[in-house]
Each structure stands twice: as C-alpha cells, then as structure tokens.
Amino acid sequence: MEVPCVRVEPEAGEATRSTLAEADLINDDYEITVAEGWLYVPVTDPEALSSEYEVVERAVDERQSQTTPAELLSFEPSYERLGKAALLDEDDTERARAIADAILESDLPVDTVLNKASKVKGETRVRDWELLAGEGTEVVHREYGCEFALDLAEVYFSPRLATERHRVAQQVTEGEHTFDMFAGVGPFVIPFAKRGADCVGVDVNETAIDYLRENARRNGVEDRVTAICDDVRDVAPDHESWADRIVMNLPHSADAFLESAVTIAGEDCTLHYYDIQHEDDPFGPGERAIREAAEPEYEVSVETRHTVRSYAPHELNVCLDVRLER
C-alpha cells in the first residue's frame, strides 16, 4: 500500500526520524524503508510538516507489532515523552517503579524515566523530579524540525504545547521583528528565527537563557537571536516600538506585563496573549485587559480566539491573537 513518506538521504535518516517522532508524525503502522539510495519514513499528517521535508507516496511494508509498556503491565500507563525521557505523574511509588521498569523493557526509544515530585513552583516555574532511570534530568527534545536542549529540573518546558507553538510559528514571515517576553529555552524563538525572523527572547531564569543561546547555536540561527536574562519590564524601554510580533506565554499573570508589551509593539503588531480562565468566559478577561492597556494609542482587533487545551476542571488555557495598529 502506498502511504505518504518523508524521503531523505540515509545519512540524515536518524536526525529526521527523531524529529518526526518527537512531533508525533511517524506512522507506526508501516516500516521505515531504505530503497534506491533513499530512506522513506512513513508519516501520518503531511500537512503538518515544514517545507524542508520532501514528501512522496511510497509502497512500504506494514510494521510488525512492538512491545508496549501497556502489554507488560496489563494496564495503560500515563506518561509523556520528551526526547528519550518518559515523564510520569504518579503518587504511588511502587506503581511509578513498575511503570518505569515496563517502559525500559518495552520497545520505546527511552533511556530516562522521571516522576514528578512537586508542582510547578516559583518565579521560574520549575518542579522537582524523582529520577527512576537514567543519568539526569537533561534531555534533547525535537519538535517540528527544531532541536532543544534543556534541563527539566532547571527550566520550564511543556511538550504538550508543541502543536500550539507550531500554529503560531507558521504565521511568522521572513524579516519580522519578534519578541518573546517569557522565552524559556526558546520553543517560540527558535522556530521563528528558522523562518527568517529577527528575534529577542527575555527570561528571568539565567539557566533558561543559557539554553536559549545554546539552542540558537544548535539550530543555526544564533545570528538572528538575542537572548536577555532580565525582567522584561526593565528591558521594554530599550525595545520601544520595535516588535512586529510579541508572544506573552505566561498565562496566570500575563496581564501584569501588558504595559510593557504596548511599549515594545511597533506600528502594526500581532500579540499572542495566553490566558487561563473559567470556561464561562475564557476570552473576555484577556481581551478587556489588552484593550485597557493599548487603547486609544492602538486600534485593537482580535483576529483569533483559540482554545489551546483544558487546564483544569472548568478552566481553559486559551490564546488571543490580537492585532495592534497605531
């Protein structure tokens, strides 16, 4: 049967396979195939691929079944994948150990298992981890053609937001001035820069900024990325009227930074404002806060009201894509 496949040269095969796997785009029902000097990687959604990939229709063999953690446990465990790490959220120590053992015995490409040992805490939103297998908390994560090194014990990062980051990155055009007010290790900044934008990323976490600089080098965009460790409210006056696009992904308190966003915004600027609100009115509070901060200096128009995910019972994580025109 012919299925859509990414076609790459064999020497680029492992890097391509890893990138597609982290974006959850590999079609596991079919085998990765080498033929006529090319490697063919079956994919589930060709539309989600970046333009750097060549997609062809190719007849490939159906894949033989692999051993999964669920088959070894007799129940379906809950975990997230981040690079070659599996992330658990288990209060029961024995259950966590059993899941970790099953993950390692399965055919998953995982060598590290971590269990959440605390909630996200502090200004830098990091958490404690219990190391169940592996050598540490540093991982390398691949997402939509970008590679991110990070230490989960030192920085905040959510693999669940990969699709949302890709949605925003697809709107970026070459030559834009983009500003991420809470940049972390660069999950918005790096794909923006790869699309040809000039990017400024700010964060109060010095370790995150170190990783942002490293990730800019890893992805070959260091000449288009400026990384600043500081409170963005102190940085804003130095970038007055500079940005064509601003990301505000600090959903519990982004409204406290809107005055700085308005300072940074250029003549015509798109603002991606993230918020967490009750399902009865998930977009209203953010829109009202933006209008209060930006009007009458700017004409404010909401272009997209987008639900990112369910955050908690009756609470939604949402994004407002807002155009500010002076």
UniProtKB/TrEMBL annotation:
Task: Report which superkingdom the organism of origin falls in.
Answer: Archaea
* Recorded GO MF terms: tRNA methyltransferase activity
Q: Does the keyword Cell cycle apply?
A: no
Note the SUPFAM superfamilies from the entry. Answer: S-adenosyl-L-methionine-dependent methyltransferases (SSF53335)
Mind telling me which GO cellular component terms the entry cites? cytoplasm
Q: Which GO terms describe its biological process?
A: tRNA N1-guanine methylation
Domain SAM-dependent methyltransferase TRM5/TYW2-type residue range list: 79-326
Q: Which UniProt keywords apply?
A: Cytoplasm, Methyltransferase, S-adenosyl-L-methionine, Transferase, tRNA processing
**Name of this chain's protein:** SAM-dependent methyltransferase TRM5/TYW2-type domain-containing protein
Q: Which organism is it from?
A: Natronococcus amylolyticus DSM 10524
